[in-house]
Design brief:
Blueprint: H1 3-11, H2 15-30, H3 57-72, H4 79-105, H5 117-135, H6 144-164, H7 179-186, H8 206-225, H9 232-252, H10 265-286, H11 295-313, H12 315-331, E1 333-334, E2 337-338, H13 339-345, H14 353-375
Antiparallel strand pairs: 1-2
């Protein structure tokens, strides 16, 4: 293969990474956003201890953001890349606050929640990047073993803190022993549920465990980055690592129950394991054997994965679109009800399946938006 073709493959985005992220976002849009919590329980977050498919959405996204970070931090890391990391962090903190204000506090800053999903993604990405850059001190190369140990240590340290501070929650149901940290540092009106729920799933202490997930994703992306197209052995290694982490979560579950809202170590391990396995499967299906001469195979895979790639390349648009569309539907009066009621009445299903019909309409609307943007090559990336 010529050097020019090798260079093109080396820097080409992995379709599997984008499509996997898009598939996760599609599932997020397809989970019932309204209705009774007992309807489709596996497609909603667990009330407290336990595990559902929806619980894995955010941690999976953290792993994929780590995989993307591996492409951004290809050595040598220039001043421009460092500046981009700072801009990314600041932008996600601001956008996260704006997201929280829509449909809630609006312009009332005294009630604005400061923690949230976008803030968590921004802060964990910055912390993970710092770990990676520090690992390169004295060399241009990463030290993957050191990065892996730091990821596991961050998850373990957070879990030990949950145990050692457990007495803080004595007699209180659904409580995080770190809740006082968020309240004292940010103010009670600026945390999840205005502090009334005794926990914040995206709180400050959670940053440790969540950064571990981003670092796991970074290591996966680094492995995929080293050889283009990816080797079968690399994909197999990711799948094996996913299986080992999932198995380890079963042992950790004896100490910390699976709990998404507390982000317990057992939950972090099962989330990392399933994310790595899903990522390996997506790359195997969409990127393995991606030689230039296999044009027909590549075209088929491109067509089949196109809608998911479109969603994955504009994840920020998907996240905001869902929130804005649901807020508009809930708050816009139509007749004696709301736009949401009007749409439910016209959903192409009956009974409980109306909720899935509503989710399907939401998914198709957002997919149309990102599809047009992808076709025009408009990608909002931070």
């Amino acid at each position: 293969m010529s050097g020019e073709k090798q260079d093109v493959l080396r820097h080409r985005r992995l379709r599997g990474v984008d499509a996997f992220r898009g598939a996760v976002l599609a599932f997020m849009l397809f989970t019932p956003p309204i209705g009774d919590a007992t309807t489709y329980p596996l497609m909603r977050h667990a009330t407290w201890d336990g595990l559902t498919f929806s619980d894995l959405i955010l941690p999976t996204f953290l792993v994929t953001s780590g995989a993307s970070l591996a492409l951004m931090l290809r050595p040598p890391t220039t001043a421009a890349v460092r500046l981009r990391l700072v801009r990314r962090l600041l932008a996600l903190l601001v956008l996260g606050a704006v997201y929280n204000a829509i449909g809630a506090s609006w312009a009332d800053l005294s009630q604005l929640r400061l923690t949230g999903v976008l803030q968590l993604i921004g802060l964990t990405g910055a912390l993970a990047a710092l770990v990676v850059l520090l690992s390169r001190i004295g060399s241009d190369d990463d030290r993957p073993v050191v990065i892996a140990l730091i990821a596991l240590a961050a998850v373990a340290a957070y879990g030990v803190g949950l145990l050692r501070r457990a007495d803080v929650c004595l007699g209180v149901d659904q409580c995080s022993s770190y809740h006082s940290w968020d309240v004292n540092l940010l103010g009670i009106s600026h945390v999840y549920g205005a502090g009334r729920l005794n926990y914040d799933p995206e709180g400050l202490a959670v940053l440790g465990a969540a950064t571990g997930l981003v670092l796991v994703g970074y290591l996966a992306g680094r492995a995929l980055r080293l050889r283009r197209p990816p080797a079968v052995s690399t994909v197999a290694l990711l799948a094996l690592a996913g299986g080992v982490l999932a198995a380890a979560s079963l042992l950790a579950d004896d100490v910390w129950a699976y709990n998404k809202r507390l982000h317990t170590p057992s939950f972090s391990l099962i989330a990392a394991g399933t994310a790595l396995t899903g990522l390996a499967l997506a790359v195997a299906l969409l990127d393995l054997g991606g030689r230039p001469e296999r044009v027909a195979l590549d075209r088929v895979r491109a067509v089949l994965s196109w809608p998911f790639v479109a969603l994955g390349r504009n994840a920020l648009v998907v996240y905001f679109s869902e929130h804005i569309l649901l807020t508009v539907a809930r708050d816009t009066p139509v007749g004696n009800g709301t736009l949401q009621d009007w749409l439910l009445a016209r959903a192409p299903f009956e009974g409980d399946t109306q909720l899935l019909g509503f989710s399907l309409m939401l998914l198709l609307t957002v997919a149309a938006i990102t599809g047009v943007m992808h076709a025009l090559r408009w990608h909002i990336a931070l």
